[in-house]
Amino acid sequence: MTEKVKKLFSSSEVFPSLTWIIEVVNPIVNKELETCRSAGLFGKSELASIEIFGSITELAKLLEYYTSLPEMFKVAKVDLIEGPELCCKVSLATGGQCNRCKRITDDIAIHPYWPGEKYNLCSRCVDVLLNINWPPFIYRNETDVYICTDEREWHEIKSGRKELPAYDNLSSEK
Ligand SMILES: [Zn+2]
Questions:
Q1: CA of 105 to the centre of ligand 1 (A)
Q2: Are the CB atoms for 93 and 110 separated by under 8 Å?
Q3: For residues 79 and 50, is the Cβ–Cβ distance under 8 A?
Q4: What is the 86 CA–ligand 1 centroid distance (Å)?
Q5: pTM across the whole model
Q6: Domains along the sequence of the chain with CATH
Q7: CA of 168 to the centre of ligand 1 (A)
Q8: What is the pLDDT of residues 38-60, one digit of tens each?
């Protein structure tokens, strides 16, 4: 979290739960991440998974921002667990790494436009790509899709400056 963002929210009573997360939870998480990083568990916190323990009231405040917590703490995954005191446990995240956003996630999408390990995209990135009309599929019949991964080629074919590759020549592309 940048200093600018911290300042904006901690000076405000508009988002009390968020202020509490920034002022109270974030230092606890950061301290634990730093300890594990120093011990060599990981290099970047994005490779870590954290469990935050706390009372029901505390967990309720965290739940308000649940989907944003991984990004706020710059970790792969956040689990919330009821416990006697507010604390954080860090471990190495498991799962696949998305090739686009580099997050470690259990949510690697299986999507016909971007099949296989070469793409390895998370569901969130697949949604983004679909929304910006990126789907680089150009040629398809009932069973096959020609997948264009080169942005320049994609624009050329889209604008008609380049012909679609003949279907017979596509086997090496897949
Ligand atoms: Zn992703």
A1: 8
A2: no
A3: yes
A4: 30
A5: 0.64
A6: 3-94 (3.30.2320.20), 97-173 (no CATH)
A7: 32
A8: 999 989 998 999 999 999 999 99
